[in-house]
Design a protein that fits this description.
heterodimer, A: mainly alpha, MetI-like fold, two-stranded antiparallel sheet, 19 helices, 2 strands, B: Rossmann fold, OB fold (Dihydrolipoamide Acetyltransferase, E2P), 6-stranded mixed β-sheet, 5-stranded mixed β-barrel, 19 strands, 23% helix, binds adenosine-5'-diphosphate, binds magnesium ion, ABC_transporter-like_ATP-bd (chain B), cell membrane (chain B), ATP binding (chain B), nucleotide-binding (chain B), ATP-binding (chain B)
Chain lengths: 423, 364
C-alpha cells in the first residue's frame, strides 16, 4: 500500500514525499489569494467608509483628550490633589493653569475646552471665555490663586476643580453616564435629578414604538403577503407593484401626506366629523404624537415586512395545506399548524428588518412625532448637528447599537438566527 | 383485514373546466366498487389529477356529481370527506417529526394521547420504519419519505386513499419495490385506492382495474391483461405496450373478423374490434411478440418482410423489418438458444393469427 516506506505510514503524502495536507494548502492558497483580490475593492471601501467611521464614533464616546491637551501642566499639577479634600489646590496648580491658559488663549483653544466642560456643568463655557479675555492683564509674578479668584469666583469653588480633576483622564465614562441619565458626583455615580432625565425615557420609547411598529407591520403585512403568494402570477405582479409603489415616492412626500391626512383639520378628521362619528369640538389628535409616528412609520416600513414574508410564502407548496385538510384539519388548523410554522423564518426576517430600520429612524418621527413621538435618533441628530456634543451622540449611538445586538442575541436564543429566510 | 373496509366511489357525468373555454374532464362516468385498486393511467395533461382533486374536494366539479358510499359529496369540504391522500412530493410537514406527521390526523380528530401513540407505532411498523419516529422528514431518504406519506394517509383508517403519482420521484428499483409494498398493503387492509400514474408498468403491476385517460375521456376501463390483450382503440393499443401499426381499408366484414387491404395492396385477416362499415379506414394493431418466423400454412396471415436490423437483448432479439411499406415493423423473437439464420437484408416470410391483430379506429 505505502509507496514511501521511509515516511510515516499514518501521514498521506504526494509522490514527491510532501505531506498531502501541505500540498493541498499550497494548491488552495492561489485560489484563496485570487478570490481575496476580487473582494479587495469592496473590503477596502467598507473599511474606509463604514468600519472606520464606526470605530471612530465608538472611540469618541469615551475619548476625552481635550482637557489634557489644552491644560497639560494643570492636569499634571492636579495629580497630587485629592478630589475629596475640602482644600482648594495649591498655588503651583494655579500657576500651571496660568501658563496653560496663556498658550490656550493664544491658540484660541480655551473656548473649546469651555464648551466641552459645559456639557458637564453649566457656567464653564463663560468661565473660560471670561478668563481668556482677562489673562493678558494678569501679573506674571503671581500670586495666581488670588488673581484667578478675582477674575471669577468660580476658580475658588471646589466644584470647578473637582470637575477639572474628574475630567482630566484621557478617557471618560462621562458621555455614557450622561446618555444613561446619570452623572459622576463626588460620591460616585448617581442618577440625575428627576426633571433632567431624558435619555432613558427616549430609549424605552424608541424600543417600545419600534416593537409596536414591527407588530403593526406584521399584522398588516401577513395577509397581504399571503394574498400575493396565492394569487396567480399576473395579478400577483400587479399587486406587488402597488406594494412597492411607496418606494417610488420621496419619503418626505409620503410623510407630509400623512400630515395632510391626520392633522386635526385634516382629511380623516373632516370626514369623521362629516359623517357624525365625532363632534367638531372633539377632533382626534393623530399627529405630532406617538399615534402619528406609529401610523406613518408602519406605512413606510410595511414593504420591508411584506417582501421577505412573500418570498418565503411563495416557496411553500400548496400541497401542504391540502395534505393537512385531507388528513381532517379544518381551514384554521391547517393554517395554524401547518402553514404558519413554515412562514416563521419569513416573519423573523421581516421583523428584524423592520425593527432595525425603525429603531434608527429619524426623519419621520421628526416630522410627525411632535415631542412625545420622537426617537432617540432625533436626539442623536440634535447632538451631532446642533449642540455639537459628538461624544454624547456617540455614546447614545453605542448604547443603541448595544441594545440591538442584545435583542439579536435574545432572538437567536429564542428563535434561532439561522431560522431567518429572506427568500 | 376485512373486505368491507373500502368505500365505493361513483362519478356521474362529471365535467370540469378551469377557464370556461376548454373541458379538461369531459363527461366522466366511473364506478369504483368497495376495496378496488383503480388506476387512472394516461399521458401528462390528460386530466387525471383533476379527477382526483375533484374527488378529494380541492377542485369543484363544473358539472355532475360525485358519490362516496352512495352519498353525494360535492358540497362536503375536504376535511370532512375522510379520504387519505398521498401527494407526488409527499407533502410531509417539514417542521414536524415523522411521528408528529403521523399523529396529526389523529390529533385533529381529538383522539387520546395513548391511542394516538399506539396507532402511530403500528402505522410505522406497517411501513417498516419503526425506529424513525423522531426524525424529521428531511433526514429520510426518498423511499422512506414515501413510506411515511403512505403511512400517514392510512393511519386514520380512511375507507378510500388517493395517490397522485406517488412514486414519480423515486429511482426505478425503489419504485418497483414500493409498487409491491403498496399493493400488499392494499391487499392486507382492503381500502379502496384510486391511483394516478403515467407509467403503464406501474398501472399493470398494481391495479385491479385501469382507466386509461386521454384528452379528458376514459378511453378504456378494464383489467390490466385485457388492456394489453384487447385494446378497444388505437390510443390504448399504442399507449399500453409495444405495438405495430398498419393502415388500410376494410374490404369485408365476417362476424368477428374482417379483411383489410393495406395501403400497399397486401390483404390481411384481422379481428374486427373497432371499425366502421366496409370501405372505411382502419389501423391494424399487432403485438411484436405475436409475429412468427416459423410460419405454417394454417396461419391466417402470411406475408414477406425484409429484415433491416437485428438487436440482441439477451432474453429476446428485436428484429426491425420492412413489412407492407412500414419499415418500423418490430418482431420480438424469444431467445431459445437455437441457432437461427437471420441476417439484415434478408427477405423472409412472417405470419400470425387473425385474432392477434386487431382492426381499430384509424390514426392519421
Ligand atoms: N389549477 C389549474 N388551472 C388551470 N388549468 C389547469 C389547472 N390544473 C390543471 N389544469 C389543466 O388541466 C389539464 C389537465 O391537467 P391535470 O389534471 O393536471 O392532468 P394530468 O394529471 O393527467 O397530467 C391540463 O391541460 C392543465 O394545464
Ligand atoms: Mg398530474
Amino acid at each position: 500500500m505505502n509507496m514511501h516506506p521511509q515516511s510515516d505510514p499514518q501521514v498521506l503524502t504526494t509522490r514527491d514525499g510532501t505531506p498531502l495536507k501541505v500540498s493541498l494548502a499550497k494548491a488552495l492558497r492561489r485560489e484563496k489569494l485570487r478570490s481575496l483580490a476580487l473582494i479587495a475593492p469592496l473590503l477596502i471601501f467598507i473599511l474606509v467608509t463604514f468600519a472606520a467611521p464606526i470605530a471612530d464614533m465608538l472611540l469618541r464616546s469615551v475619548e476625552n483628550g481635550i482637557v489634557e491637551n489644552t491644560l497639560p501642566k494643570t492636569v499634571n499639577a492636579l495629580s497630587g490633589w485629592d478630589v475629596t479634600s475640602s482644600q482648594l489646590p495649591g498655588e503651583p496648580v494655579y500657576k500651571a493653569l496660568y501658563e496653560d491658559l496663556k498658550v490656550a488663549t493664544a491658540e484660541k483653544t480655551h473656548t473649546r475646552l469651555g464648551s466641552r466642560l459645559n456639557y458637564e456643568a453649566s457656567g464653564m463655557s463663560s468661565l473660560f471665555r471670561k478668563t481668556g479675555r482677562r489673562i493678558k492683564r494678569m501679573d506674571e509674578a503671581g500670586p495666581f490663586a488670588e488673581q484667578f479668584i478675582d477674575i471669577d469666583k468660580d476658580w475658588g469653588d471646589l466644584a470647578t476643580w473637582r470637575l477639572l480633576k474628574r475630567y482630566s483622564p484621557k478617557y471618560t465614562p462621562g458621555y455614557f453616564l450622561n446618555a444613561a441619565d446619570a452623572q459622576l458626583t463626588a460620591d460616585g455615580i448617581a442618577m440625575k435629578p428627576e426633571n433632567e432625565r431624558i435619555y432613558l425615557l427616549l430609549f424605552a420609547r424608541t424600543l417600545f414604538l419600534s416593537l409596536t411598529i414591527t407588530l403593526c407591520c406584521l399584522l398588516l403585512g401577513y395577509p397581504i403577503a399571503f394574498l400575493l403568494a396565492s394569487l396567480p402570477l399576473r395579478s400577483a405582479n400587479l399587486l406587488m407593484i402597488l406594494v412597492l409603489l411607496p418606494f417610488w415616492t420621496s419619503l418626505l412626500v409620503r410623510t407630509s401626506a400623512w400630515k395632510v391626512l391626520l392633522q386635526q383639520e385634516g382629511v380623516i378628521n373632516d370626514f369623521l366629523v362629516w359623517i357624525g362619528v365625532i363632534g367638531d369640538a372633539s377632533r382626534l389628535v393623530m399627529i405630532n404624537n406617538k399615534t402619528g409616528t406609529i401610523i406613518a412609520m408602519t406605512h413606510i416600513l410595511l414593504p420591508f415586512m411584506i417582501l421577505p414574508l412573500f418570498s418565503v410564502m411563495k416557496t411553500i407548496s400548496p400541497s401542504y395545506v391540502r395534505a393537512a385538510k385531507s388528513l381532517g384539519a379544518t381551514d384554521w388548523t391547517a393554517f395554524w399548524r401547518v402553514y404558519f410554522p413554515q412562514t416563521v423564518p419569513g416573519i423573523g426576517a421581516g421583523a428584524i428588518l423592520v425593527f432595525i430600520l425603525a429603531i434608527g429612524y429619524y426623519i419621520t418621527p421628526e416630522l410627525v412625532g411632535g415631542t412625545d413621538g420622537i426617537f432617540i435618533s432625533n436626539r442623536i441628530a440634535y447632538h451631532i448637528s446642533s449642540s455639537l456634543n459628538w461624544g454624547l451622540a456617540a455614546a447614545l449611538g453605542v448604547i443603541l447599537l448595544g441594545a440591538v445586538l442584545l435583542l439579536f442575541y435574545v432572538y437567536d436564543k429564542i428563535v434561532g438566527i439561522d431560522n431567518v429566510k429572506l427568500g | 383485514m376485512t373486505e368491507s373496509r373500502g368505500a365505493s366511489v361513483r362519478y356521474e357525468n362529471v365535467q370540469k373546466s378551469y377557464d370556461g373555454e376548454t373541458l379538461v374532464v369531459k363527461n366522466l362516468n366511473l364506478d369504483i366498487p368497495p376495496g378496488e385498486f383503480l388506476t387512472m393511467l394516461g399521458p401528462s395533461g390528460s386530466g387525471k389529477t383533476t379527477c382526483l382533486m375533484m374527488l378529494a374536494g380541492f377542485e369543484p366539479a363544473t358539472h355532475g356529481e360525485i358519490f362516496l358510499n352512495d352519498k353525494p359529496i360535492n358540497n362536503v369540504p375536504p376535511h370532512k370527506r375522510g379520504i387519505g391522500m398521498v401527494f407526488q412530493n409527499y407533502a410531509l410537514f417539514p417542521h414536524m417529526s415523522v411521528a408528529e406527521n403521523l399523529a396529526f390526523p389523529l390529533q385533529v380528530r381529538g383522539m387520546g394521547k395513548a391511542e394516538q401513540e399506539e396507532k402511530v407505532t403500528r402505522a410505522l411498523e406497517m411501513v417498516e420504519l419503526g425506529s424513525f419516529g423522531s426524525r424529521r422528514p428531511a433526514q429520510l431518504s426518498g423511499g422512506q419519505q414515501q413510506r411515511v406519506a403512505v403511512a400517514r394517509a392510512l393511519v386514520f383508517e380512511p375507507e378510500l386513499v388517493l395517490m397522485d403519482e406517488p412514486l414519480g420521484a423515486l429511482d426505478k428499483q425503489l419504485r418497483e419495490q414500493m409498487q409491491y409494498e403498496i399493493k400488499h398493503i392494499h391487499e392486507n387492509i382492503g381500502v379502496s385506492i384510486v391511483y394516478v400514474t403515467h407509467d403503464q408498468t406501474e398501472a399493470l403491476t398494481m391495479s385491479d382495474r385501469v382507466a386509461v385517460f386521454n384528452d379528458g375521456i376514459i378511453q378504456q376501463l378494464s383489467e390490466p391483461d385485457q388492456l394489453y390483450e384487447n385494446p378497444q382503440n388505437s390510443f390504448v393499443a399504442q399507449f399500453i405496450g409495444e405495438n405495430n401499426k398498419l393502415s388500410g381499408t376494410v374490404v369485408a366484414v365476417d362476424g368477428d373478423t374482417c379483411d383489410v387491404k393495406l395501403d400497399d395492396g397486401t390483404m390481411l385477416k384481422a379481428e374486427a374490434v373497432n371499425i366502421g362499415a366496409v370501405g372505411s379506414r382502419t389501423t391494424i394493431s399487432l403485438r411484436p411478440e405475436r409475429v412468427e418466423f416459423d410460419t405454417h400454412e394454417s396461419m391466417d396471415n402470411l406475408i414477406p418482410g425484409e429484415i433491416r436490423e437485428m438487436i440482441y437483448l439477451g432474453d429476446h432479439i428485436r428484429v426491425r423489418m420492412k413489412v407492407a411499406g412500414n419499415d418500423e415493423f418490430i418482431v420480438k423473437v424469444r431467445n431459445r438458444g437455437e441457432k437461427r439464420d437471420l441476417r439484415a437484408g434478408q427477405t423472409v416470410e412472417i405470419g400470425w393469427a387473425a385474432g392477434d391483430c386487431k382492426a381499430l379506429d384509424p390514426v392519421a
